[in-house]
Write a structure and sequence with these properties.
This protein is of the alpha/beta class and 302 residues long. It folds into 2 domains: 3-117 and 193-301, Malonyl-Coenzyme A Acyl Carrier Protein, domain 2; 130-183, Alpha-Beta Plaits (2-Layer Sandwich). Helix content is 45%, strand content 17%. It contains 12 helices and 10 strands. The protein has helices spanning 25-35, 39-44, 53-73, 87-95, 100-116, 133-140, 163-175, 196-206, 233-240, 247-256, 270-278, 290-301; strands spanning 3-8, 80-83, 123-129, 146-153, 156-162, 180-183, 218-219, 226-227, 259-265, 283-287. It has a 6-stranded mixed sheet, with helices on both faces. Strands 4-5-3-6 form a 4-stranded antiparallel sheet. Helix 11 links the parallel strand 9 (259-265) and strand 10 (283-287).
Length: 302
């Protein structure tokens, strides 16, 4: 029997106008009251704030949760969920593990902590194409302050760490056969040990958030394993900030569990493209607009 996996993109997916079909004045007002952010300005008006981590993260999550609600109202429900970095909060929401505004508040704290964790210009990230995770690990293990941030596919790896050593890392990875090495336009070294203090502060905030019994399991970034027990969630989210995202292994696990239809929820096809590289046999859809939703309903009911 066919199984559906909901997947959620992370930071970098943002764009002005994202998810506007699902926004209402009531939601915008309630969200502003909950976290003190004018989402009307951030999401619907041309601005630079949308690319600031403290605004980006709650704005993306808001859209992801609203689309999730509409999918479920339409009778499209997940058997398993996962999200990349920030997107893990969308997955936990889809699992029933956290309430709407609790998730929004937690991610608003997360965004601020990650933005403030390392002074601007001290840390950075880079995308590496054409080398396996093992090969990248071996090269960067010899460079102080550089580690792997994301295992996106078998040969698409993101590294993270100290700006002063990133050029050395890129040079050595190119010499080791990388097809492309590109420094990313990010505000910090996300998923680096440099963010351990941010994770510890996030845990303090999460201790004040209700985590609910899950109706649907999700796959954690840190372990690439299924989470059913709500008691695991806070620790995993604390570690996630400073640990590698094991996305390729997460997708492979979902497929092993029988997921053959993936729905990427939010303003991106980033995960769609990654999943295609991981396994071409599965079906993948993206829902960002109501038109996408109606098309998906037609496809699934065909």
């Amino acid at each position: 029997m066919s199984k559906i996996g909901f997947v959620y993109p992370g930071q970098g997916a943002q764009k002005v106008g994202m998810g506007k079909d699902f926004l209402t004045l009531e939601i915008l007002n309630k969200a502003k009251l909950a976290v003190g952010i004018d989402f009307n300005e951030i999401i619907l008006e041309e601005n630079e704030l949308i690319n600031q981590t403290k605004y980006t993260q709650p704005a993306i999550l808001l859209i992801e949760m609203l689309i999730t609600d509409e999918l479920i109202k339409s009778g499209i429900k997940p058997d398993l969920a996962a999200g990349l970095s920030l997107g893990e909060y969308g997955a936990i929401y889809a699992s029933g593990g956290i309430e709407f505004y609790d998730a929004l508040k937690a991610v608003s704290v997360r965004g601020k902590l990650m933005e403030e964790a390392v002074p601007l210009g001290v840390g950075t990230m880079a995308a590496i194409l054409g080398l396996t995770g093992d090969k990248v690990e071996k090269v960067v293990s010899e460079i102080d302050g550089i580690t792997v941030a994301n295992y996106n596919t078998d040969t698409q790896i993101i590294i993270t760490g100290k700006q002063m050593h990133m050029e050395e890392a890129i040079t050595k990875l190119k010499l080791s056969g990388a097809k492309m090495c590109k420094e990313l336009n990010v505000s910090g070294p996300f998923h680096s040990p440099m963010l351990i203090p941010a994770g510890e502060k996030l845990r303090e905030a999460l201790d004040n958030v209700d985590i609910c019994d899950m109706k649907v399991p999700y796959v954690a970034n840190v372990t690439a394993k299924i989470v059913n027990d709500k008691s695991e969630v806070r620790e995993l989210l604390e570690k996630q900030v400073s640990s590698p995202v094991r996305w390729a292994d997460s997708v492979k696990l979902m497929i092993e569990e029988g997921v053959d239809t993936f729905i990427e929820i939010g303003p991106s096809k980033t995960l769609t493209n990654m999943i295609k590289k991981i396994d071409k046999r599965v079906k993948i859809y993206n829902v960002e607009t109501r038109e996408d939703l109606e098309k998906l309903r037609g496809e699934l009911n065909a």
